UniProtKB/TrEMBL annotation:
<dbReference type="InterPro" id="IPR015996">
    <property type="entry name" value="UCP028451"/>
</dbReference>
<dbReference type="Pfam" id="PF09365">
    <property type="entry name" value="DUF2461"/>
</dbReference>
<protein>
    <recommendedName>
        <fullName>TIGR02453 family protein</fullName>
    </recommendedName>
</protein>
<dbReference type="InterPro" id="IPR012808">
    <property type="entry name" value="CHP02453"/>
</dbReference>
């Protein structure tokens, strides 16, 4: 892809996130808000804009507006139901997802930076139990279709599967390669890296574009899971 707006992040962006961690107060944030916009908001907006045509090829219904609460995360935290009462996060991320009030239970693409690392990938932020039950049902019904969507992961070393698993397997007869999917409460594919110098290059946008394309078959499979889940729920009402 040809980068148009995104020129890479800067050391100042990572330094700002460190300072957020050290000076987690409303007074400090308001004083340094111009730096937040310069070092984080602006490059993230450029990155979203440059990736928008790629992700729309994957899903034309994706939200691509380069703004906070659309594709960009907020820096301030909702502390009402959290033991951690820190007002601000020392990380920032973008998310490509379909506009939906309860988007955390639907598959999405993401990219996140922190002072020490970055990560990107695709999957559920917090899959519902109904989604995972449907996921397992579809595996049982058509294992060949599942293999077509997921088999490429065995031929690459970029992404790893993560997400909480049940302590006791749900399907003892399945091989380990399938149980790593079947036994999960949540699923996402992620590339984790501590090589933050990569963030300083516009080439990180190419990494994301290539990685998102690689994950498209799994995203499309998870979309079918969501469609099937809604269909089954509608049928159960009658």
């Amino acid at each position: 892809m040809t980068t148009q707006l995104f020129e890479g992040f800067s050391q100042e962006a990572l330094d700002f996130l460190v300072q957020v961690r050290l000076n987690n107060s409303r007074e400090w944030y308001e004083k340094n808000k111009p730096l937040y916009k310069q070092y984080l908001i602006k490059p993230f907006q450029g990155l979203v804009s440059d990736l928008s045509h790629i992700v729309l090829e994957i899903d034309p219904l994706f939200e691509i507006a380069p703004s906070v609460n659309k594709t960009l995360s907020r820096l301030n935290r909702d502390t009402r139901f959290s033991k951690d009462k820190s007002l601000y996060r020392s990380a920032m991320w973008l998310t490509f997802k379909r506009p939906k009030s309860e988007w955390t239970g639907a598959p999405a693409f993401f990219f996140e930076i922190s002072p020490e690392s970055f990560r990107y990938g695709m999957g559920y932020y917090s899959a519902t139990r109904e989604s995972m039950d449907t996921f397992r049902k579809m595996m049982n019904e058509d294992l060949a279709r599942f293999d077509r969507a997921f088999d490429f992961l065995n031929r690459q070393e970029i992404f790893a599967v993560e997400g909480e698993m049940y302590k006791r397997t749900l399907a003892p007869s399945l091989p380990d390669t399938l149980r790593q999917w079947y036994d999960r409460k949540n699923i996402y594919l992620v590339h984790n890296s501590s090589q933050v110098e990569r963030l300083f290059s516009p080439a990180i946008a190419d990494d994301l574009a290539e990685g998102f394309r690689m994950l498209e078959p799994i995203y499309q499979y998870l979309l079918k899971v969501e469609v099937r889940k809604e269909s089954d729920a509608a049928s159960a009402k009658y």
